[in-house]
Every structure is written in C-alpha cells, then in structure tokens.
Specification:
The chain is an alpha+beta fold. Helix content is about 40%, strand content about 10%. The chain has a 4-stranded antiparallel beta sheet, with helices on one face. The N and C termini lie far apart (about 80 Å). GO terms for molecular function: identical protein binding.
C-alpha cells in the first residue's frame, strides 16, 4: 500500500479542503477516494495511476461539444418562441384592424335595422357620404346611382365579414357549431378527437 493516497489529497496530488474545485470551461475530473465504500482497493497503482494525456483532451472536447449542443438547442427553442411572438403580434394587429373596420362600418349611414346573417352593400355618394343598402350592384345593373365600395355580412357577434371571406368564415363557424353540439362529457382518452371536423 505504498502508493495509497493520504486522505485529503485529490487526484494529481492537489490538496483538498473539503470543497470540490470549481469546474472550468473544460470540465473537471472526479476526486479520488483511497477507500471507496470503506474498502481498500486491490491495486491503488492501477486504479489511481495517471491515464493517457489524450484522455484529458477527449474529455475537454466532449465538454466543449456538450456546450455547443446546449447552446444550439437553446437557440433553436428561442427561435421557435420568437416566431410565435411574431405570429401573435400579427394576430393582434389583425384583431385591432378588424375591430377598427367593424366600428367604422357600424357608424355608416343606414335607413334600416341591420339584422345579423344578412349581406349589406356599401355605396358612396358624390358628397362623400357612405351608406348601406340591401340592393347589390348586380341588381342595380347599369343604373347604379353611386360608387360601390364593397359588400359585408353582419355576423351574429356583430362583426363584419367582407364578401370574399364569407364562405371561409361560414366554414369556420360550422366547425365551431359541430364542436358545441357534441356531448359535454369528456372522452376517456386524453388525445384530441377530430372526428367529424373534416368536410
């Protein structure tokens, strides 16, 4: 047992104060114990001998590679979050634009009580006044008295849908109606159920 270490000595002969040394950028080796688990080792020379110097290089390379992978992984996750934030910002901008448009359309002159589910046609007089009518430009034909600006459907939540988006919006509402008409009881499985949502 000539080569047995004196307690308090760390690998490489560095004296240990009971506090493990801080790991540098290249990592650190585990401290040696002369009697692990209270048992003396058979051959401290073979178990405590200095290894191949290339092993330390390989260990440093492995730690550096782990740092690179962790950094790349964090970058990928942050990129996904940044894309989600950008998408949410776009959605917020669209919500504000739609709300502004809906408010403006509700203040347009109209001589009738507007009912949800109906399509209204927006015209502008020579004076610049805009107004809603239930008569389409097609029904007017060549005798349309004023400039046609667009057609909108009044939804049941009192929002307005442009004529070109009516079909798409009706399809979304139909899907939501199917979901709302399904039984309220939760299914036994935790996976989402998309049955009946396809056309």
């Amino acid at each position: 047992m000539e080569d047995a270490e004196v307690p308090g000595q760390a690998e490489g002969g560095v004296e240990s104060s009971g506090v493990p040394p801080a790991a540098g950028r290249g990592g650190a080796l585990v401290e040696r114990t002369p009697t692990p688990g209270g048992l003396a080792l058979v051959s401290p020379y073979h178990t405590h001998r200095v290894g191949d110097p290339l092993d330390l290089v390989a260990l440093a390379e492995q730690v550096q590679k782990a740092d690179e992978f962790i950094r790349a992984n964090a970058t990928n996750k942050l990129t996904v979050i940044a894309e989600q934030v950008q998408h949410l910002q776009e959605q917020a901008r669209k919500v504000l634009e739609d709300a502004r448009r809906d408010a403006d359309l509700h203040h347009v002159a109209c001589n009738m009580v507007k009912k949800p589910g109906n399509i209204y046609y927006l015209y502008q007089r020579e004076s610049g006044q805009q107004y809603f009518s239930i008569i389409s430009p097609k029904e007017w034909g060549a005798n349309c008295p004023h400039d046609f600006l667009g057609a909108y459907k009044l939804q049941h939540d009192l929002s307005w849908t442009p004529y070109e988006d009516i079909e798409k919006q009706d399809a979304k509402i139909s899907i939501m109606d199917k979901l709302l008409n399904q039984p309220v009881a939760l299914p036994p499985c935790t996976e989402p159920i998309f049955q009946g949502l396809s056309h």
